Amino acid sequence: PHPIFLHDYQPPEFLIDRVDLAFELDPEQTMVTARLELRRNPAATRGDGTVCLHGEQLELEWIALDGHPLNPVDYRVERESLTVQRVPDRFVLETQVRIHPAHNTALEGLYQSGDMLCTQCEAEGFRRITYFLDRPDVMARYSATLIADKTRFPVLLSNGNRVASDDLDDGRHRVRWEDPFPKPSYLFALVAGDLRAVEDSFTTASGREVALQIFVEPHNLDKCDHAMRSLKKAMRWDEERFGREYDLDIFMIVAVSHFNMGAMENKGLNIFNDKFVLARPDTATDVDFDGIESVIAHEYFHNWTGNRITCRDWFQLSLKEGFTVYRDQEFTADVASRGVKRISDVRVLRSHQFTEDASPMAHPVRPDSYIEINNFYTATVYQKGAEVVRMQANLLGPEVFRRATDLYFARHDGQAVTTDDFVRCMEDASGRDLSQFRRWYEQAGTPELHIQTSYDEATRTCSLIVRQHTEPTPGQPVKAPFHLPLAIGLLGPDGRDLPLRLAGASSPDAPGTHVLELRQAVETFHFVDLPARPVPSLLRGFSAPVKLSFDCTDDDLLFLMAHDSDGFNRWDAAQTLMQRLLLNLVEDAEAGIPESFFDAFRRALRDEASDRALLAEVLTLPAESYLGEQMAVVDVDGIHRARTTLTRLIGERLRDDLLAVYRDNGESGPYAFTPEAVGRRALKNLALGYLMQAEDAEALARCQAQFAGAHNMTDVMAALRLLVDRGGLESRQALDEFYRRWSGESLVLDKWFSVQATSPREETLTQVIQLMRHPDFSLGHPNRVRSLVSAFCNLNQVRFHAADGAGYRFLADRVLELDPLNPLIASRLVKSLIRWRRFDPGRQALMRAEIARILEREDISKDVFEVASKALD
Length: 873
Ligand code: DPP
Ligand code: ZN
Description:
Elements: E1 4-5, E2 14-24, E3 30-40, E4 51-54, E5 59-65, E6 68-69, E7 75-78, E8 81-84, E9 90-99, E10 109-113, E11 116-120, E12 139-149, E13 155-158, E14 161-167, E15 172-184, E16 190-193, E17 196-203, E18 209-216, H1 225-242, E19 250-256, E20 263-264, E21 269-273, H2 286-301, E22 310-311, H3 317-335, H4 338-357, E23 369-370, H5 379-396, H6 398-412, E24 416-417, H7 419-430, H8 439-442, E25 447-456, E26 461-470, E27 484-491, E28 514-518, E29 522-527, E30 535-538, E31 547-550, H9 554-563, H10 567-587, H11 595-606, H12 612-618, H13 624-629, H14 636-653, H15 655-664, H16 675-693, H17 697-709, H18 713-726, H19 729-742, H20 746-757, H21 764-772, H22 782-795, H23 797-800, H24 806-818, H25 823-830, H26 841-856, H27 862-872
Parallel strand pairs: 2-12, 18-19, 19-21, 22-24, 25-31
Antiparallel strand pairs: 1-23, 2-3, 3-9, 4-8, 5-6, 5-9, 7-8, 10-11, 11-16, 12-15, 13-16, 14-15, 17-18, 20-21, 25-26, 26-29, 27-28, 27-30
Helix pairs in contact: 1-2, 2-3, 3-4, 3-5, 4-5, 5-6, 6-7, 9-10, 10-14, 12-16, 14-16, 15-16, 16-18, 17-18, 18-19, 19-20, 20-22, 24-25, 24-26, 25-27, 26-27
Diaminopropanoic acid binds at residues 122, 261, 263-265, 298-299, 302, 321.
């Protein structure tokens, strides 16, 4: 396989203005007839008089040009293309192809999920449906006529508006859809099935009525309320915050069980992994409710950032994804808790994106080459892309940023554009020069900031020396400095923010946060008029996606934890402190934990006034994988031991306070998904976790009672996890009972698999291997694979990285089994192996051997090849 390069981009030689599709749908074989109106692109250089269309796994039945069937000498079919010779400047091309949805295990293109048929076309699935110029800069108006058996497939959906329907004589029916908005092929969708809809409506700001429909299988009708509420909230928010109104008369969501990704923003017809639609308090956890709200919003927001304005090419993926993630993050911050949202977003960024930056798959937010684009739906493109938008929003300030996004929507509506076009709108609306800022799109790697602070009593000056440095990444040995906002505050001895006055500035800023803009590798800042040595609070709100190190004592951290006016930095100080204690314990299992730590923890637990959700975040120990990232060589077993020890010590030392917190935050009344109730459950279950690690008898009794008596899945799962991690008879009984109760609910059963796969118990891998043979396990079901295999490989550091290499062997075997079925899912799994350089020589050798074994397989997919080969480069 060969890479594709951004610098080779050429505009398409032909454009397609209109597409009329007709489907005779049947799982075994579907006939697709396409009528394409093509014309030469005036903006492209003239080629050799042929047109070359993408197409994969299509059986061509017939082909005609301007109404005349073509002779075989006039066209050539190859494995991934159809070339037509000697075409005029403007013509109509008609084709009919045969495809086989029931045999499509890759779940790209048209495929079967349970009893329904559905599509997934992003990024390059449309070419498995018909021959086409399957690239996002070819935007066309579509119609789709769907014909299928009326009993099996009473519901037939596609993009846009339903314009006609009738019954045929043979038991089939026919529905025609038309989408008035030009779109790239990756946004095409169709669904056929025996589905029911939950319906509602939304009145837009300008007074238009939009019909809302969520389609599910009949037994799931009672799990759509939260998704519908979330959709309406998102529609209103986008009007208020970004001035974006919905543009069609109907908006549909379909929940599908077999889905490679989270969801897909097809125009007017979003198709979702059912995990991000279906929820009832007794089947879904707070995390699930939260995921549904933000994914529904995310896909809805794509209607403007992705669909109306799309990407010129796939290197620009972050144009739509980074911006849309930023928008969904802001939505959640507005409708739930801004502080908690920022913390959880930064957690994700640090644990997924920073690790990606430190891996052989490191790439810029705008990658410059790829072998398989499916490998680039990454934390870098999504989460770091969102941070890059966030920095621009913060540099511009809210009003100017809104003017800049208005300009972007006005200037580029209906176009396929680049990240550079986006930044130019930021510049044009603000008058700022963001040329250096553009490096965030071009350079991979996480910048490291080292900050030295000093205080001079004589001059009453606090000085900051700020150094930035970014490690080399594959293909980028040397990095230029970034332009980045560094938000800081200085705390006085009473814990309050001091007025900040830079040397030379005429008047001080008001007390609070000051944003420094960094542009050079080393910069020095002097703050004057400070009566005493302040404690600096740096990178407030995580103002830039960097790794920060600065010289501060444990006492400084305790002080920040207690007083910082910035909630994010209070949390971060606690995390840094816990990280220090834990890494000390890794080095020396006998190392003591200072009393001051337990005191601070106790004070926090007793603080009645504090926000429960934030408190739960502050009191959560850093994850094992995150701790590993902080070490030169990951000490898998040492980290697990240290974290278990500290958890137990907290449980023992703070027993009474933890029990009080547990009791005080119990459920009262029916389940509510409000920030307050979510926070209470989080704190209560965190407390229970500490107590359980301390082998507390009362805690065990409460845990079992919670498992048996809770009416919401959040509390049931929290208790089940603790029982499973503890092991023994109670664990077996709880698992069996859970299975009996929930084996008919696929999404709940996923939880049963993953709670076992993520247990740190020694027998976990053996258990996982047994579960692979469970009648409910299937490699053809991505959610199930993720719940068992990916959960074990990605969320269970101590067992996956067992020193004997059994975890690695298990993973490679699964990759080799999955690759012929579903390369996208297989390739995601390989990513768990590629960070081998972070481990000791023994583990390194074992991991490399497994990657090599994967690469030896003939006929490996491009997806897996790209990740595995880069891993060994
Ligand atoms: N475009 C989708 C999303 O991120 C991914 N398939 O919403
Ligand atoms: Zn997206």
